[in-house]
Amino acid sequence: MDTILALLEGNQIFTPRVLTEYWGGFVTTAQLTVLALLIGLALSVPLAIMRTSKNPIINYPVFLFTYVFRGTPLLIQLYMIYYGVTLIHGIQESVFWVIFREAFYPALIAFTLNTTAYTTEIFRGAIQATSRNEIEAAKAYGMSRALMMRRIILPSAFRRALPTYSNEVIFMLHATSIASLVTIMDLTGVAREVYARFYAPFPAFIFVACLYLILTFALVYLFKRVEGRVLAHLRPR
Amino acid sequence: MLDLHGYGPSIMRGAILTIELAFLSLLLALVLGLITASAKLSHNVISKGIATFYTTIIRGVPDLVLMLLLFYGGQWALVELSDWAFEVSDGRIDFFIQFNSFVSGVVVIGFIFGAYMAETFRGAFMAVEGGQIEAGKAYGMTGWQVFKRILFPQMMRHALPGIGNNWQVLLKTTALVSVIGLEDMVKLAVEAAKTTYEPFIFFIPVAFIYLSLTAISEWTLKWLKNHYSAGVVEG
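Predict the joint structure of the above. Result:
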């Protein structure tokens, strides 16, 4: 501990104060990533079911949503929600201003909508890949569509979606870095601030790059463990 | 009618800039990807190590952080270098290089997507049967002829879906270059939105341009896929 403190005193950039700022940035990044992913997950399951519907009135609006959000840059979506909402006439006097005064909520909305669009398509693919035999068996048992969805299709679809979904999680972790462009002090935001204060691009950005690398590796490891568990029946014997 | 407050032409110029940037970065990424994939598949430990390091780092760090690191870091290194040269030469060497944000954008995006392309190419190279390459060599073809006549046409079929995905992501990543000062359509839209207080009028057309670009790419990729899958029975 003493050696660490001595080391911290020895350099000019990574003082305990700056490290506390990085910690704060990490907390913001984690909050944005986890919240966006959880809300996105909850929204995308019903949307994916709607997306597999044969009725165009149900299917088409969801398709339009995923197409637009997957076909445009996340940065544009973020700017549109951040500037769009804050520049609406009268919003600053309304009750919504409590939510939109800080950039955090517009950013969270943008990230959530974006991940919802991608996750919906991931689940749609997984649902449509369900083996016909399983569906036939469920129908032969007299299951309703809802029961079949709950007992047969969704559990196996979630498993199939897991490897692709883990990519989406890592993508989201990386995507939250653009929150720093709308004044949010996430990990990247702190790094930009430290860079500007000391004019030291390499220490500021390499440090934060290492943090992202560690987080990415941790997530990859975690998902490998989970996949090993839930996809155990698919392992080569 | 849509009133763009005179920003219309400059946003169109920004759109063309985005397309140029995307194509040039794609070119660089493809070249880097091919080199890196070859290095990864080679038996040389050093080149294998460098290639693995490159692809791992790039794919584990956000694009924006890499962009800031390379752009600001590169600028800082050049300033230090020119200071050093000035001192060593007693003032005889005095140069100052201002980074061109378009070139930096191409280099940075190409460098990032080179890593993704490398993974795509590596998989595609491995998907071509070794026996075919041996057969080519047995016919007395040179290494380049084997690559051009046997490896490349078949590899493209396996690589195309991956290249297509990477291209779609690359296209959307170009929006980030507004951060390093390039006057692309995103930067112009932000400026226009701030001055006129009418954000949607500018962001919706820009979003629509991106959407058309990704849609056109999708159709083109479908066509290319059919072209390179000629004679292959699916399933």
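DSSP finds ten helices and no strands in chain A.
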